[in-house]
């Protein structure tokens, strides 16, 4: 079937995090799309409602098969049921990984992240009283790169135990290549640093780029005992309100340790609707995903063309995955809060880059996963804000 992503659906007064305004502000911020979910997903929820019993639920073989087939068919990732654990979310899993790979105390608590980075990568480390070590991404020819020299120096200096990778990276949208992943893995192996790879944006990889699951590389390099990947159907299929995610690992001892800790925290199972939509999404959501990605690619072009034509001093980083575009707005101000406020005054909301670490100074992140008409009006307001019309 053909989905209509041009449809504007009123999300106000639904408890939506994105649409929290009392006025007519256009939200182009948090990573949530303004599109209806795929029909097979909605149908699967309806079937549960029609059945009428919402009792205790566990993952079925059919659900495991759906997860295994999706990852094998798309990425050649070879999983068995034993490799898969469930978690209420990728962010809760990031917190859990502190307990798995680090301890509190000197020389055992350092966690390295590359900024700018999705905020919980930093907050979860600090809230768990671990030492946060930052290695900034390098911008080369308008693209972020891992600074391997700096990463190695910091690993040694701070006795880093855990490296939190974001692949595809948020913000900036880099899809790390096989050779980049190999180099990183080699480095972590050399210094016995565990790697946790957040791959939640994997299925939103854009044309011309190839997503490689880190576990695949880790297995080939004999380092699977120190690698975990975290992913979810929620970002791919725009069902974040459902909550639910997976943890993948290949090593039996490591899986046992994670599972035990999950049971201790009582965080090992999902709700009935999460299991239900996870299965229907991976079994039958492919058609919707293909269409939404085409729509997103078109919106990315619209945004890039608009900004080049109207606000050429904004430096735009073209994403390789997802629908979030990273903008260097330093030509339009020298204060993060003032930049954000200027946009809010023009009734459009973007994410302030400084929330992703100091590398995000004077940057903004814009979400283009919305009906084209909304995006165009939102862009007009960005122009109004920065051209001084408001
Ligand atoms: C890189 C990354 N990880 C995790 C999440 C959120 O994951 P969850 O809702 O499963 O906690 C997001 C949401 O935007 C994200 O961008």
Structure explained in plain terms:
The protein is α/β, with parallel strands linked by helices. The chain has two domains: 26-39 and 286-386, Aspartate Aminotransferase, domain 1, CATH 3.90.1150.10; 56-283, 3-Layer(aba) Sandwich (Aspartate Aminotransferase, domain 2). Helix content is 40%, strand content 15%. It is built from twelve helices and 15 strands. Strands 2-10-9-8-7-3-4 form a seven-stranded mixed sheet, sandwiched between helices. Helix 2 crosses helix 9 (272-284), helix 3 (90-101) crosses helix 4 and helix 11 (336-345) packs across helix 12 (372-386). The longest helix is centred in the last third of the chain and has 25 residues, at 286-310. The structure holds pyridoxal-5'-phosphate. Pyridoxal-5'-phosphate (PLP) binds next to helix 3.
